[in-house]
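Budget justification aside, the reviewers requested a transparent look at the raw inputs and outputs of the sequence design task funded under Objective 1. We therefore reproduce one unedited record. The lines immediately below are the structure tokens for a 74-residue chain.
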């Protein structure tokens, strides 16, 4: 992720960094309400990251749960 690819919500940005450290791919391609996605390359599953989530804590938890489930794939 480049500097301009940071998520504006600090909790979500921290969860995205944890996902990257776990070996998952973070893509930033803004499309409507979607900021991007976290992708597990080996199994090709993904979780969508929203631009303006209703709750940044819930969005960060969603990313963390996905990261935990796919940590061993990467």
């Amino acid at each position: 992720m480049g500097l301009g690819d940071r998520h504006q919500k600090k909790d979500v940005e921290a969860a995205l960094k944890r996902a990257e450290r776990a070996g998952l791919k973070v893509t930033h391609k803004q499309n409507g309400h979607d900021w991007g996605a976290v992708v597990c390359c080996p199994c090709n599953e993904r979780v969508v990251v929203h631009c303006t989530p209703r709750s940044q804590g819930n969005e960060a938890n969603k990313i963390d749960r996905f990261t935990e489930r796919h940590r061993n794939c990467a």
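Residues 3-70 form one domain. Helices lie at 10-21, 56-70. Computational costs for records of this kind are itemized in the attached budget.
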